[in-house]
From TrEMBL:
PANTHER family the UniProt entry points to: AB HYDROLASE SUPERFAMILY PROTEIN C4A8.06C, ALPHA_BETA HYDROLASE FOLD-3 DOMAIN-CONTAINING PROTEIN-RELATED
Organism name: Natronincola peptidivorans
Keywords: Hydrolase
InterPro entries: AB_hydrolase_3 (IPR013094), AB_hydrolase_fold (IPR029058), GDXG_lipolytic_enzyme (IPR050300), Lipase_GDXG_HIS_AS (IPR002168)
Name used for this protein in its record: Acetyl esterase/lipase
Keyword Hydrolase carried by entry: yes
Amino acid sequence: MLSIRGRLISFLLRNRHLLSFSSKKKVIDWNTYEAILGFRKDVEKGAGRFGKLPEGIDVVPVSIDNLYADWILPAKVKKDKAILYFHGGGYISGTCKAHREITAKFVKESNIGALLFEYRLAPEHQFPAALDDSIAAYQWLLNQGISSSNIVFMGDSAGGGLCLAALLALRDQGSPLPAAVVALSPWTDLKCTGESYVTKAKICLSPEGTGLAFAKHYAGSNDPALPYISPLYGDLHGLPPMLIFVGGDETMRDDSIRFAEKAKQAGTDITLTVEEGLFHCYPATAPLFPEATQALRDIGIFINKHIDKEKII
């Protein structure tokens, strides 16, 4: 049963429009560029709402083939193991600034540094720009001398889908795959065909109409069912162990359920947690309520199960 604090946080987030003294959620035409610019501004304005950087965490900016990135590192930990973090934002928004605090939580819990990078955004840069940038960031880690067996992919929302798409592309190229993958509410179906896109539309935290609009901005003239866009439609054999969390009250719920079922059938070692009554990417809100805190702990255990903890200098 969902905790009292979990129910309270979920209720407050779902009804946050009431804090603006509005009885209804604002209706936005997400097909317009003005709406995208406004969304990006709101995302940056809200940076840090999930907490501040934990004590003992350093942020070191780096440049990767003209991509901006941050090393987010525990103090006195070497960079011979890494989490490659793929930020969310519907492929049309998201920056390192907006995701530092979130990423740092998983760094602190696992005691393993993360490379958080900014991939190019749609609609200015449509598919395959984000995928190409993701592979470039992974290759950069390999070029730093970090073994693929010491790298874990992690992403939230669109970033979760992107890290799964990158897996498929890397496997098909014959490149070494990371040791494991963690995904929070991954967007695996940009066609938005899951039942939850209808049944959860009114209670999901994501603004209505974003799914298909954002998918169109990212996919452009490409078929959204291409596996490198929507990994749900790919061949899921030969993938590393995965850990997925999704809320029971979000439109992307079925993206995780269907992907996990298909991956398991293909022989992938995959663990899925569907937390009923909770929302999109809920583990990122730890430690606000017990379910998020437990998810954070489970993620740290999973990461350290697949790559050894950093050696203290």
